């Protein structure tokens, strides 16, 4: 087996091996968000799992403008709300790299738990939440000090995480026991556990915080959670190997990356229909949406990022990045 084949095999089972280690919009209508000009970060950040780097893509030109070395096996990435910092989870190293978005350099390396798999930032930028897959915990990092201030036990094999836009709750998808843990951000404790589909690999909170969606890789569907009652209210079919999910800032549509189909499902979550199915690169495993109304899909099997125009649901650019891109992120969007 060649090195590249080994790389692809590694990513195609990235989240699977984490599990085995434990248990063996409609078109996007908002083209711009009312943020101060100084807060605009017009880059896309891609964590390259096998390359131990982050590729920085300029949204305007769809070209890679920088490559930042990080820790070993980067598999998760998030951008701070102000666009100034990028956080990368390094699964093998057990750390989080903090990148200065202005200089594209690592300014801090924060120890996390066993196998940090995903990361999210609080809406006010004060806290970073890291899911540790092999520990079954969430590490909470205070951004002012880059120190862990709490560790919260969650379910089995947590692989993804999302924060309610109101900042009150954090949602953790536990692939090992098919649940979502709801964490109170004040008490740092789990207040609810919600059963969802089989092997939830991806999770996203709706722009108003009323709904949370999980992409369930083994049941090929999306679970819809009502955050007021913390109950499952709907299940929506997706493609084969639904393992990553993102949502428009107006709450429709939902985008689901289907790892086994090499497609992205564009879903209306309200009437539970598929608006479109968009062919992308090989083995899409992560998805993000920018303020400029573009959808970015990291294709682990083709070492590329597909750029989708949501008005046409067509790929308008393909950007070559590092080896086995496992995660993609942009500056968070405000619904207000």
From TrEMBL:
Q: Does DNA damage count among this protein's keywords?
A: no
Q: Which residues form the YNCE-like beta-propeller domain?
A: 37-123
Q: Which domain of life is it from?
A: Bacteria
Which residues does UniProt call coiled coil? none
Point out the signal peptide segment: 1-39
Q: Which UniProt keywords apply?
A: Signal
UniProt cross-references to PANTHER family, sorted A to Z: DIHYDRO-HEME D1 DEHYDROGENASE, PROTEIN NIRF
Name-wise, this protein is Beta-propeller fold lactonase family protein
Q: What is the protein's species of origin? A: Dyella koreensis
